[in-house]
Design a protein that fits this description.
Radius of gyration: 29 Å
Number of domains: 2
Order of helices and strands: HHEEEHEEHE
Structural class: alpha/beta
Distance between the termini: 37 Å
Shape: globular
CATH topology of the largest domain: Barwin-like endoglucanases
Helix content: 25-40%
Length: 151
């Protein structure tokens, strides 16, 4: 943005030009530099960060379990989710929410956000299954009846 000093200098330059005073000749480089800053700050080029605050749309009480990529717990592609992505921290499997739904499990994981990218066996209608890379951690988590927040 043009600051007040630049406006004052431009005004002084205009007054000097209309009154015949020619001693203010150094204003042009300042104006050129300022206009270069303005053109580089074109609003279409500026990205505004969205706030991290997520709005909770709904809450559900349901069973949350843990799973790993062991063949005993998955189909014949243990490292590929139903959405086609690779398993990783922060994904969950459920048949209750659509693929891509963002959820939180605040009582267990605070503000951590999970994304639904996998499905469970059809007999599990109201469950959420969290993927763990480590079998020991998955067993330690076990199963818990808790609140799910849909974002």
């Amino acid at each position: 943005m043009i600051n007040y000093i630049t406006i004052a200098l431009v005004t002084a330059s205009l007054i000097a030009n209309t009154t015949g005073i020619t001693r203010i000749k150094t204003i042009e480089p300042l104006i050129q530099n300022e206009s270069m800053v303005l053109s580089s700050q074109n609003p279409s080029n500026i990205s505004i960060a969205k706030p991290n605050k997520q709005v909770v749309k709904k809450t559900h009480k349901m069973w949350v379990t843990a799973y790993t990529s062991r063949l005993e717990e998955t189909d014949d592609t243990p490292f590929i989710t139903a959405s086609g992505s690779y398993v990783r921290d922060g994904i969950v499997a459920t048949n209750f929410f659509s693929i891509g739904t963002l959820i939180r499990i605040p009582e267990q994981f605070g503000d951590k956000i999970f994304r639904v990218e996998d499905r469970m066996h059809e007999r599990f209608e109201r469950n959420v299954d969290i993927w763990f890379s480590d079998l020991g951690e998955a067993r330690k988590f076990g199963n818990r009846y808790t609140t799910i927040e849909v974002l």
